[in-house]
Amino acid sequence: MIETKTKPTKSDLYFAKRARLATGWANNVVLDVQAGVIRSVQSDQKCPADATLLSGPVLPTLANVHSHAFQRVMAGAAEVCLNPNDSFWSWRDLMYKVVQKLTPEDARIIAKQLYIDMLKAGYSQVGEFHYLHHQTGGTPYHDPTEMAQQLLSAANDSGIGLTLLPVLYSHSGFGGQAPTSGQARFIHSTDAYLALYQACDALLIAQPQHQLGVCFHSLRAVTQTQIEAVLKATPEQARVHIHIAEQQKEVQDCVQWSGQRPVAWLQEHIGLNSRWCLVHATHLDDSELQAIARSNAVAGLCPTTEANLGDGIFPGVALEQAGGRWGIGSDSHVSLSIVEELRTLEYSQRLRDQQRNRLYRVTQPHVGDYLFDQALHGGNQACDVTLGLQTGSRADFMVLDDTHPFIAASESHDLLNRWLFACQDNVIKDVFVFGKQVVKDFQHEQEAESRRDFANVIKRVIYDA
Predict the structure, then answer these.
(1) Taking CA 344 as the corner, what is the angle to CA 338 and CA 345, rounded to the nearest 5 degrees?
(2) Which of 38, 292, 358, 396 could bridge to 61 as Cys pair (CB 3.0-4.6 Å)?
(3) Enzyme catalytic residues
(4) d(CA 119, CA 243)
């Protein structure tokens, strides 16, 4: 019998003069990457002759836990006051009008440019909360995954990892109210949703950079029977995302319908655990907050969107004191800056409490480091990925611009604070995903063409040009 030997996988070596590992900052670090995964991390090393030199401080990239890609096309278009009581609900009316104009090709173009911008911002995985399913008027496409395929194509073209979250959306209000005409492109029955889920699973099965999760739009859009049926029919380990307690009106409507606040109802009737990502969760009472923390569910915070929509201030200090978990997302994409998301979160706590330095731990008094670590770990959990500069993690990392004064001059223990609270420009110079460079010297190789295509979609969809 002739033995056959498996050819060893080639290693790619990367050298960083300083890098933020899972254990903290380290100097002269060699990353050994094989098949897109970090196989070893060694510090205090000489630069190997065949290593790629990373010219600046190296950080892990983050997962963006919450995205509605198509909404990027209307960013900045709703900042006109048409009502002295303008709110999320009037913003939603404009969003419904935009939805009626989008073709599958539009959706792909918007998502591609969005994902390129996310990569340039330091996100390498995106939780895509996908509910734009059907044709205008609600007629299904011949292939039920038509719109999901556009997102997948955009992710593959850009190089970002996708956590696809096809959304079950059936009703317009609590108690199974009939959907409105503006929601027609979103609506599925339970059976149709499960068929879509299985079809999406078949699309992603051979693509390890992408994940598939379960998603309910909100408690007002599904019934208890639907939630139970979907959870029973889908994998036990799949992540579960849901919008919840974003607006006071939503909380009031839930209390009127059930006698309970949204998170309390979800905990009692369905149950929470570490699979769940509770998007926004802005309006909580103490018992709900404690329930989230005990369950190890992730609060999916979108600080710039929540500020833009006037949602309210998330109780971040209280969740930290309870030992809770959170990640960040860019939601409607009025901003695609990790800096702005984390800064807005911290500053909102300061404005509410009229105190400084609100989000930290005794073991981690540097606010920037605390914020970044929470976003990293919460994003990993919510998007079902493993990012971080440690053995076994996906080889995703970003390199900061060492010509920027705050980056060049800062000692490592101050660098995240300087980046998150002092830098106005994007200082992320290079980005790698699965060990492959997707952003080089602040540029993505497909950026010029993608920007032109996106501009044309904006002109047609927003301005009817």
Answers:
(1) 95
(2) 396
(3) 280, 331
(4) 24
